[in-house]
Specification:
about 5% strand, Four Helix Bundle (Hemerythrin (Met), subunit A), mainly alpha
Length: about 170
């Protein structure tokens, strides 16, 4: 039995982005309940040399929309990454979920062999087949940033667990 490229991408991105949205809701509620300025969480980091929560969310959604769009061979939507509040991060996730909803299985399935080039024309240029791009680059990058966002909030006392991270499946 085989799995389609669509099934390995869009539903996975949607599940995890919805879970991330729920985790952000819990973090905002936690901040309000504990009388903590929500921006403390939005700017929190796991380590000084790591991106803060808002950037982790921005990069996660960038991978979800970018990988999906490249596999569907459509233009990648561009957003300015200026989010500094929970509400703005939620709006960003909503935009990306709507974009993912616009992509059909017919646009992605069968694209395992297309060539996808990252950072073209630079010393960091890398070429992938569609399948390798999703499985060895896109999904690992996406999960890294979703996991890091979760870990930042958990580290800062937000009461979330594995079920929150996984979301509905």
């Amino acid at each position: 039995m085989t799995i389609s490229l669509y099934a390995a991408s869009i539903p996975v991105f949607k599940q995890m982005l919805n879970a991330l949205s729920d985790v952000l809701n819990k973090a905002e509620a936690h901040a309000l309940a504990k009388n903590i300025d929500p921006s403390v969480f939005v700017q929190a980091r796991l380590a000084p040399d790591m991106f803060p929560l808002n950037r982790q969310v921005q990069i996660a959604v960038d991978f979800a929309k970018g990988v999906s769009s490249r596999l569907a061979e459509i233009e990648v939507p561009s957003y300015p990454d200026t989010e500094t509040t929970f509400a703005e991060l939620q709006a960003l996730i909503s935009k990306v979920l709507a974009h993912l909803d616009s992509i059909t299985p017919a646009q992605i399935d069968g694209k395992e062999g297309i060539e996808i080039v990252t950072r073209p024309g630079t010393p960091k240029e890398k070429r992938f087949s569609g399948q390798a791009y999703l499985l060895t680059y896109g999904l690992p990058q996406f999960f890294f940033h979703v996991t890091t966002a979760y870990a930042i909030l958990r580290h800062n006392g937000v009461e979330i667990g594995k079920r929150d991270y996984m979301g509905a499946f």
